[in-house]
Amino acid sequence: MTVGAVEQVFLECERARAQGDLIQRVSASDKEYHFQNWVGDRIAACQLAFDEPGRNTYPDFRLVNHPEGYEVKGLEFPGREADYDSNSQVPTGEHNGREVFYVFGRYPKAERGVEEYPVVDLVVCHGSFLNADTDYVHKNKSFRGFGSYGDILVRDRKMYVVPTPFALASGTSGLATLILPADYQVQSPDLVQVGELDRVEVNDVLVSYEFNMQTNEMVTHKEQNPNAGKVHSFRAYRSRGAGDTKAVTLNGPRS
């Protein structure tokens, strides 16, 4: 039996979390790589070769022998956990021919003098759980001509604020959860299904916006979604014996 790479990565993350493999602090000022390094160690433990991540690579870990990539999002807990800032990159389930999986992990807030700390809980989910669209390509645009002398450059560098799986689904606190498309054929006998989650596409989608530099008002423009009402079905899994009796359910729409 061949177990999929994402199953291996999830099970290794849960093993490490349960056995107390701690996150090692990189520095007091750089929070970005604490959890990313922890996830990288888990992928390496699965003997899955990957390209070394960089500050501007997407996804963070791109497997060499599998058409998969892993984007890592660490969240301090308690703290901001309902959403995260996605700088110039809309979440997606496919990128440059790779399936993209997101690894969300919550860990305690930093304390002075504490150099290692545990993973409180984690969710590994397919990128399409966050956003089903794979066609949109982000581009940073700019124009010159602003200001009294007409020589100031204005950059349109968008920041997307995306809900996390901890906000989208209930039953994830304190445990490790894997969320995959319903048509994904799970191979590992160590995974137990704990939920069915259906996300439904909205009637209208945003296609453009305008920003008035005199009034600082923003106006959005929408069009009918050709996929309105389409249901994207997912299944949630847990490692056998690790909270596999606690169900995962989808929360209501965010306002």
Written description of the protein model:
The protein is mainly beta and 255 residues long. 13% of the residues lie in helices and 41% in strands. Strand 10 (141-146) and strand 11 (152-156) form a beta hairpin. The radius of gyration is 20 Å and the shape is globular. The mean pLDDT is 90.
Sum up the structure in keywords.
mainly beta, 255 residues, globular, 41% strand, nine-stranded mixed sheet, two-stranded antiparallel sheet
Task: Give a brief outline of the structure.
The chain is mainly β. Helices cover 13% and strands 41% of the residues. Strands 2, 3, 4, 6, 7, 9, 14, 15 and 18 form a nine-stranded mixed β-sheet that branches. A two-stranded antiparallel ribbon has the order 1-8.
User: Per the principal axes of the C-alpha atoms, what is the gross shape?
Assistant: globular
Would you tell me the structural class of the helices and strands? mainly beta
N→C terminal distance: 44 Å
Mean pLDDT: 90
Oligomeric state, counting identical vs distinct chains:
single chain
